[in-house]
Amino acid sequence: MTDTTDKNSERFQALRAKDRQIQKELMQVSDKVRARHPFLVKHQNAVGMGIFLVSIAGMILNGVLWMEGIMPAWLVIVLSAFWTSLLHELEHDLIHYMYFRKQPVWHHLMMAGVYLARPLTQNPWIRRYLHLHHHKVSGTETDLEERGITNGEKWDWKRFLMVGDNMLAFYLRAGKYFVVPKKLLKQGKINKTDIKNLRIIGALSFNPVGYICYTIWHGFVLFHLANGIAWALGATIDWPQWLLAQEAWVTATVVILIAPNVLRTFCLHFISSNMHYFGDNTPGIIHEQCQVMNKWYLIPLQLFCFNFGSTHAIHHFVVRDPFYIRHLGEKESHEVLRRHGIRFNDMGTFKRANRLNERAA
C-alpha cells in the first residue's frame, strides 16, 4: 500500500528511535524468559502441536459430554470458547510462521485444523496477508484487518452487532466496501494496484462455510426469539414439520461449534478493535498503534481471547515470540511499556471512536 509518511523528518526519526528503544528492552525481557524456559524454545513445534491437539480434544470431549446429557449446553459453550481462544492464538503464531516453518505439510495441517475448529473466521492463508499488512500500517485507513472488525467506527448499536458477527459486519457496511477504496485512491493514499489487490483479497476472503454457519446461527436465534415472544404473549407458532425436523442437528451444531465461536469472536473483536488506535496515529510508529487493556472488569472478555488485551501490545514490538512466551514475560514487559508512556486502560477510546487523541467528528 502507498505510504505518504515523511520518513526523513526529524520528528519521525525521533519516534522511530523510541520504538527501537522499547523493542530493545522488550527483547531483553523475551531473552530472559527464553533462558528460563529453554524447553519452550527448543521444542516450539511440539509445544504448538500439543496445544493444538489438547484444544481440539477438549472441544470434542465437550460435545460428547453434552450429547450424552452429562454436561449442560451453557458449560459446553463457555469451555469450548476457551479452547477456541487458544486455537486463535495458534493461528496467529502460524501466520507468523512460528510452528513447522521448515515442515510445510505439518504447518498447513495445523492451519487447516485451527480454521475448521473456528469456521466463522476468515481463511487464515488470506488473513496472513492482511495481518502482516496490519503490522506495517496499523491504525491507518488501509489497515483492512482492524477496520474489518470495526476499529475506528463510532460506538452505537450497529457496531455492537458487528463486533461479534462477521456477516453483519459486511452487510451493515456494504456500501463502504465500494465507496472507501475510490475515496482513498482520489486522496492518493492508495493506487490502482492497491485497489486490484483489495478486490482479489475480497474475492478470496469469501468463506462459504462461515456464511453457512452464520445463516444457521441467525436462524437459530430468530427461531427461539420468535418462540419466546409467542410464549410471552400466551400464543404458539405452528412451525412446518420440515423445519422442526431440523431442530436436533441445528441445536447440536450451535452448541458444539457455532455458539462457542460467536462468544469468542465477540470477546476478541471487542478487545482488539478498542485496544488498537485508528486515524490520527503516525503511520509506521509502533508506540502509537495500541494500548494495554487489563482492567479487572475486562476479565470475562479476556478469558475468551486468552488475555489478548494485556499482551497484544507486546507483540507489536516483538513479533518473534509465540503467545505463551509473551504471557510468561507479561509483568516485566508491562514495566517497560509503562516506563515509555504506553497507555494502559485508556477507556476514552470508546468516546473517540478509537482515535489516539482527537474526538471523532
From TrEMBL:
What the entry lists under InterPro entries is as follows: FA_desaturase_dom
Q: Does the keyword Transmembrane apply?
A: yes
What sections of the protein cross the membrane?
46-67, 73-90, 209-233, 248-271
**One protein family per Pfam:** FA_desaturase
Recite the UniProt keywords alphabetically. Membrane, Transmembrane, Transmembrane helix
What region holds the Fatty acid desaturase domain?
71-345
- Alphabetical GO biological process terms: lipid metabolic process
Protein name (database record): Fatty acid desaturase
What organism, scientifically named, is this protein from?
Answer: Thalassolituus maritimus
Lineage, uppermost ranks: Bacteria, Pseudomonadati, Pseudomonadota, Gammaproteobacteria, Oceanospirillales
